[in-house]
Design a protein that fits this description.
The complex is a heterotrimer of chains A (about 500), B (about 100) and C (about 500).
Chain A (H helix, E strand, L loop, with lengths): L8 H9 L5 H14 L6 E4 L1 H16 L10 E5 L26 H8 L3 E6 L38 H8 L5 E6 L5 H7 L2 E4 L19 E6 L2 H11 L17 H4 L8 E5 L9 H16 L3 E5 L7 H16 L18 H12 L2 H14 L5 H24 L2 E5 L15 H5 L6 H6 L3 E8 L5 E8 L4 H15 L12
Parallel strand pairs in A: 2-3, 2-4, 7-8, 7-9
Antiparallel strand pairs in A: 1-3, 4-6, 5-6, 5-10, 9-11, 10-11
Chain B lengths: L4 H10 L6 H18 L23 E2 L9 H5 L5 E2 L2 E5 L4
Antiparallel strand pairs in B: 2-3
Helix pairs in contact in B: 1-2
Chain C lengths: L3 E4 L2 E14 L36 E2 H13 L7 E2 L2 E4 L9 E4 L9 E6 L5 E13 L3 E3 L6 E5 L6 E7 L6 H18 L11 E10 L3 H8 L9 E6 L2 H20 L8 E5 L4 E4 L12 E2 L6 E2 L2 H9 L5 H10 L4 H8 L2 H10 L5 H19 L10 H12 L5 H14 L3 H8 L7 H14 L1 H9 L4 H11 L6 H11 L7
Parallel strand pairs in C: 13-14
Antiparallel strand pairs in C: 1-2, 2-11, 2-12, 4-17, 5-6, 5-16, 7-8, 8-11, 9-10, 12-13, 14-15
Helix pairs in contact in C: 2-4, 6-7, 8-10, 10-11, 13-15, 13-16, 15-16
The chains are: A alpha/beta (about 500), B alpha+beta (about 100), C alpha+beta (about 500).
The structure holds magnesium ion and zinc ion.
């Protein structure tokens, strides 16, 4: 069964239930695919042995009639989730060979549901980036290439290893984290589905922190249904995370079913940017029509503070990051510079040598905006803008149930194409970042291909804790888009 | 507000980051570019707007006063780049 | 111990404020489930949260919140229904996350007040500026090896209450008295054990000097400009050192100012060995803590009902107890001494049950404290329980034994234990009121001292000597009152004294 790896999560679940395949067979197929796809550099750590042990254990459980929601399903885990006994690097040299003696809540939830871990996926260092080029373990290549081109493209970021792994059929689905768009943007440029849940829906316990008030874990999958299945298991109420929501977790697979007749869809006019590519505008318009054709009401809404979202984000996120990353000091774990002559030297060189350029840049920005004399002008003002941005959404959601926007300003770009100007890279998140600032759920669904044959995504934004409606609308877009394209498997050649 | 080389040196010191002397100037340039862009926030009238403290309406969780952790110095020290007899070690600190 | 210092150029006033770090009495730490117990093996009471491991998150301990509120109520302070936890960012090896979770702009407790009673009977009020909750740091050991410092994180994350006073103390005596009073209050409340040797209570003392009138001006206008520039003396960890540190520092500042110098606002360390304060040069680099609200925690919001229920459960505090004792007839001085330690006050209350308050306090001061002192024991270690002492006082009061025998009886039960009433019976220590036996003893003394009998006719004051002799004759068991009466008749003494 060589096309086991192209199954969706839901299909694989059926095949396992029907005993057409064992978890060991399924897992072995993915292990082979991962080995063959090493040119993509999607994984930092492959855990084949562990995967087979987990698969065998799952097959035993199934034989005993003990079947979890994700029983025997092989997944890839972004290397930002701490995994007990398995190296966790955040794609940084400074975490060195850090092996956590604890498990993140999200991954624990997955293992408790019977899932199998294939390995830890590559990412931007500490999740800071939109192209997966800041990883200390090298860039990830997008499985997609422009029609007739051999140029390597970025898989988006920061969850670029996860998006590439899902797009290249190296796992049934993967986990990602999203601080400013890090699930939705890579999903969009790899033709996959990426869901950022409401802030607090998935526990942050055991996820290496980037910006605590924005970070949220979510599923990256081949279909909307797969994302719904995965989210149902990832989400929980966690007493170990003070910001985890006390809201019961519904069955999202059930909630996503049904028609969207009467659904009120808002099109935020401020998302129509000057000089936006025709590919994007055409897809966005098409998306509106798809929903309308299925009975939704479409109308324009206004989110007046949209243009301030990105600069607000580039104050809040670096500020929190500068503090969150202070613990990487070469004292208790991780990289320590050789022969430090005193404690300050130990700190400065361990951090100077251990952090990459983008992380250092953001630490400096964050330190600056919090420092004496600048706090009010920057950090304090940015927190007020967050309030205004959130109010925009609250007002819009009085009139509509979901918002429809593009996911990214363009398709995947070439490796190295945007690394010289940080600002240009930051603009990748222009459509996604507002959602993190307001704590809302957002999902990117593949909508079609550019003229060059590269995938583009549409984003839907929902009300807080209304992932059910969001998934239902996403499924409607998915049905209409009927996106069946797959990248050519050039890496196995 | 413009960031110069000395400012970069000062914040790098605060952040305990060794930044090579030759990189201070280019970094100042990059940061200036970013802060210039961020200046647009100054256009917005934020008078009377409360700063965001929690993005989702929710109450702070409280934990019970029970000892549930500890007694695992071995696991705690397992990743330490410097340690002796269950102490973390660093170059001598002079007070 | 005065409020002023004499310099070459005239007098100077001392002004003192304090920041006290009091360790919250709780089983687990402020944001983790690791134990707070003192003296454990290195790094054995450390959770992954305390060690700042990647991805670890703080979750607040409800007991620590309750203890802070309880303390705030005990300080008659405003409890803030909404407070915020902030991060204070700095690098130090025993600060695992690179920041301390503390409260900066919005503390859990606002303004309050502590009354202190001075030796001369004067009382002053010391304003409390605020109380906030924060994490303790770990411990660095610098003398274990020539090249390395050793870091133990057992203390890291233990809850502290930082209690900040207004600059309302004006002598080393007042500063020490304040700390003693604060310690008494938190111990009464059960929110801190006040153990200064183990570092459960540490004080940073702010000292400044100004010309006479400056302090009055400050109290009137609230302007700190009328006060001198202050120095903060860190971690003064005993009552005695506080007095020493204040005296030394005030004198240092006066000398400096009179030489034409200026006081630099700085942090200084008290060297207990030399009795001096010195500049902490190492820590003088510009601090910029970059405080901001901790995004891992939401604002702390308290229900008024919950605060009220804590208020209702508050024990009687030293000031109230002192007032009650005074109303029961004790002198203000005696009352102050008794309430300083809750154990002593509790002991006294048991001791005084059903007997005269003055008799009880005299017994405590004259008999019990002396013996404890002699044996190097604390009130908690006393070999004779309060109830037994109470029995002795009752026996004196109802005439069962004499005052003299009472002291001997205490010595016996102190050394050998036993129920005082049984000891009295077994050893026949009962006071003799039987007139026959007393008369016999009187006759015996008269027969043996004919010259004294003649003398007493001229000097009736000699009666005391006769009483003493008769008491001796009865082995101290005779009732002095009965002996007095019998002698008066027998020797025909005038009705006087
Ligand atoms: Mg302080
Ligand atoms: Zn403090």
């Amino acid at each position: 069964m060589s096309d086991l790896i192209s199954l969706t999560l839901a299909e694989a679940r059926e095949a396992l239930t029907a005993k057409e395949v064992s978890s060991r067979e399924l897992t072995s197929a993915f292990i082979q695919a991962i080995e063959a796809a090493r040119p993509l550099n999607a994984f930092i750590t492959e855990t084949a042995e562990k995967a087979l042990l987990m698969a065998d254990a799952s097959d035993k459980r199934r034989a005993a009639g003990n079947v979890g929601a994700l029983e025997g399903l092989p997944l890839a885990i972004k290397d930002l989730f701490c995994t007990n006994g398995t190296r966790t690097t955040a794609a940084s040299k400074i975490l060195g060979n850090f092996v956590p003696p604890y498990e993140s809540t999200v991954t624990q939830n997955l293992w408790s549901a019977g899932a199998v871990m294939l390995g830890k996926t590559n990412m931007d260092e500490f999740a800071m980036g939109s192209s997966n080029e800041t990883s200390a373990f090298g860039p990830v290549f997008n499985p997609w290439r422009s029609r007739g081109s051999n140029t390597n493209l970025v898989p988006g970021g920061s969850s670029g290893g996860s998006s590439a792994a899902v797009a290249a059929d190296l796992c049934l689905a993967a986990t990602g984290t999203d601080t400013g768009g890090s699930i939705r943007q890579p999903a969009a440029v790899t033709g996959t589905v990426g869901l950022k849940p409401t802030y607090g829906r998935c526990s942050r316990y055991g996820i290496v922190a980037f910006a605590s008030s924005l970070d949220q874990a979510g599923p990256m999958a081949k279909t909307v249904k797969d994302a719904a299945i995965l989210l149902t298991s990832m989400a929980s109420i966690d007493p170990r995370d003070s910001t985890s929501a006390e809201t019961a977790v519904p069955d999202y697979e059930k909630l996503m079913a049904g028609s969207i007749r009467g659904l009120r869809v808002g099109i935020p006019k401020e998302y129509r940017l000057d000089g936006m590519s025709t590919d994007i505008t055409a897809l966005w318009d098409k998306g509106g029509r798809w929903l309308k054709d299925q009975g939704a009401e479409i109308f324009e809404v206004s989110l007046p503070h949209t243009k301030y979202a990105l600069p607000t984000y580039y104050i809040v996120a670096p500020a929190e990051a500068s503090s969150n990353l202070a613990r990487y000091d070469g004292v208790r774990f991780g990289y320590r510079a050789s022969n430090p002559h005193d404690i300050t030297d130990l700190y400065e060189r361990s951090r100077g040598e251990g952090f990459g350029a983008e992380v250092q840049r953001r630490i400096l920005i964050g330190t600056y905006v919090l420092s004496a004399g600048y706090y009010d002008a920057y950090y304090s003002r940015a927190q007020k803008l967050r309030t205004l941005i959130k109010r925009d959404f609250e007002q819009a959601f009085e009139k509509c149930d979901v918002l429809l926007t593009p996911s990214t300003p363009g398709a995947a770009f070439g490796i190295g194409a945007k690394t010289s100007d940080p600002l240009e890279m930051y603009l990748q998140d222009v459509f996604t970042v507002t959602v993190n600032l307001a704590g809302l759920p957002g999902i990117s669904i593949p909508g079609g291909l550019t003229a060059d044959g590269l995938p583009l995504g549409l984003q839907l934004i929902g009300k807080a804790f209304d992932e059910g409606t969001l998934l239902r609308a996403a499924a409607a877009v998915e049905t209409a888009a009927d996106f069946k394209a797959k990248p050519a498997k050039w890496w196995t050649a | 507000m413009s960031v110069d080389k000395d400012t970069v040196r000062r914040i790098a010191k605060l952040a305990r980051l060794a930044v090579a002397e030759a990189k201070l100037e280019p970094m100042a340039g990059e940061l200036n570019g970013i802060f210039k862009w961020v200046e647009m926030l100054g256009e917005v009238n934020v008078e009377g707007v409360p700063g965001m403290t929690s993005v989702v309406a929710q109450k702070l969780k409280w934990r019970r006063d029970e000892v549930t952790e500890g007694g695992n110095a071995e696991a705690l020290m397992a990743n330490a780049p410097g340690g002796e007899e269950h102490f973390f070690t660093v170059p001598k600190v002079v007070e | 111990m005065s409020r002023t210092i004499k310099g070459q150029s005239g007098e100077w006033e001392i002004v003192i404020g304090m920041e006290v770090h009091a360790q919250v009495l709780s089983r687990a730490k402020l944001f983790s489930g690791a134990s707070t117990e003192f003296g454990a093996e290195p790094n054995s009471q450390v959770s992954f949260v305390d060690a700042g491991m990647p991805g670890m998150l703080p979750v607040i301990n409800e007991k620590c919140i309750e203890q802070a509120v309880r303390t705030g109520l005990g300080l008659k302070a405003k409890i803030n229904r909404r407070s915020i936890f902030d991060r204070k960012n700095y690098f130090y090896p025993d600060l695992p996350s690179g920041y301390q979770i503390s409260q900066y702009k919005d503390p859990i407790v606002g303004e309050g007040e502590v009354t202190i009673d001075l030796k001369d009977g004067e009382s002053i009020k010391v304003g409390i500026e605020r109380l906030h909750l924060e994490q303790d740091a770990g411990k660095s050991l610098h003398d274990q090896s020539p090249d390395n410092s050793f870091v133990d994180l057992n203390r890291a994350g233990v809850a502290l209450m930082e209690i900040v006073t207004k600059p309302h103390m004006r002598s080393s005596e007042e500063a020490a008295a304040f700390l003693r009073k604060l310690r008494a209050i938190v111990r009464y409340l059960g929110t801190c054990d006040g153990n200064m040797d183990e570092g459960s209570m540490r004080a940073d003392v702010n000292v400044s000097v100004c010309r006479p009138g400056g302090y009055e001006e400050f109290r009137k206008t609230g302007s700190f400009k009328s006060l001198g520039i202050r120095c903060e003396i860190k971690n003064v960890n005993s009552m005695r050192f506080i007095a020493q540190a204040v005296e030394y520092e005030a004198r240092r500042q006066v000398d400096l100012l009179e030489e034409g110098g200026t006081v630099r606002q700085e942090t200084r360390l008290f060297d207990a060995r030399l009795g001096e304060t010195r500049s902490m040069r190492g820590k003088e680099e510009a601090h910029d803590y970059r405080y901001f609200p901790d995004p891992d925690l939401l604002p702390l919001e308290l229900e008024q009902d919950w605060i009220d229920s804590i208020a209702q459960s508050l024990p009687e505090l030293p000031d109230e107890k002192r007032a009650r004792f005074i109303a029961q007839g004790l002198s203000p001085y005696d009352a102050s001494v008794l309430v300083a330690e809750r154990e002593l006050a509790d002991f006294y209350e048991d001791l005084a049950k059903g007997v005269d308050a003055k008799a009880a306090v005299n017994w405590l001061n004259n008999e019990i404290l002396g013996r404890l002192n002699r044996d190097g024991l604390s009130i908690a270690q006393i070999p004779v329980p309060a109830a037994a002492n109470n029995a002795i006082i009752q026996m004196v009061a109802d005439g069962t034994i004499s005052g003299k025998i009472a002291k001997d009886l205490l010595d016996i039960v102190w050394a050998e234990g036993g129920d005082p009433r049984e000891v009295v019976d077994k050893r026949g220590l009962r006071q003799v009121t039987d007139t026959g036996a007393i008369d016999a003893a009187i006759e015996k003394v008269i027969a043996a001292n004919p010259a004294k009998v003649e003398e007493i006719k001229l000097k009736p004051k000699l009666a005391g000597w006769f009483v003493g002799q008769v008491m001796k004759e009865t082995g101290g068991k005779a009732s002095p009152a009965a002996v007095n009466a019998a002698l008066k008749i027998r020797l025909n003494l005038p009705d006087e004294g």
